[in-house]
Amino acid sequence: MSDTEHTGGGTSTLDRELEELLNQEKIEEGDHERFSHYVPKDKILESAMTGKPVRALCGKLWTPGRDPEKFPVCPTCKEVYEKMKK
């Protein structure tokens, strides 16, 4: 069992795995603004209350402020999310 597999560690394990996946992803210039992105729900709430930027699964850092339902899901976020579910 690798040290990135779930061992019943709860949220901190998921946070650590997310950080590892983000570090593996290459962040490239591109069409990030044309997509809605996956971000942990608690981070969205925190951003709404504090104005603090959030980091999406694809690595995009921004302050949410638009309706994500109006945009397609970021393919990189979706790919990272699928890796996390395994």
Shape: globular
Low-confidence stretches: 25-30
Question: What is the mean pLDDT?
Answer: 77
Order of strands, main sheet, comes to 1-2
Q: What's the alpha carbon Rg, rounded to whole Å?
A: 13 Å
Q: Which bin fits the share of residues in helices?
A: 40-55%
Oligomer: single chain
**How far apart are the first and last residues' alpha carbons, in Å?**
13 Å
Strand content: under 5%
Order of helices and strands: HHEEH
The secondary structure category is mainly alpha
* Biggest sheet character: 2 strands, antiparallel
Would you report the number of β strands?
Answer: 2
Please report the number of helical segments: 3
Task: Please give a structural write-up.
With about 90 residues, the protein is mainly alpha-helical. The chain is built from three helices and two strands. It has helices spanning about 10-25, 40-50, 75-85, and strands at about 55, 60. Strand 1 and strand 2 (about 60) form a beta hairpin. The radius of gyration is 13 Å and the shape is globular. The model is unreliable at about 25-30 (pLDDT under 50).
Structure characteristics:
single chain; 86 residues; 2 strands; globular
Question: What is this entry, summarized?
Answer:
With 86 residues, the protein is mainly alpha-helical. It has helices spanning 11-24, 41-50, 75-85; strands at residues 54-55, 61-62.
Question: How is the topology of this model organized?
Answer:
Blueprint: H1 11-24, H2 41-50, E1 54-55, E2 61-62, H3 75-85
Antiparallel strand pairs: 1-2
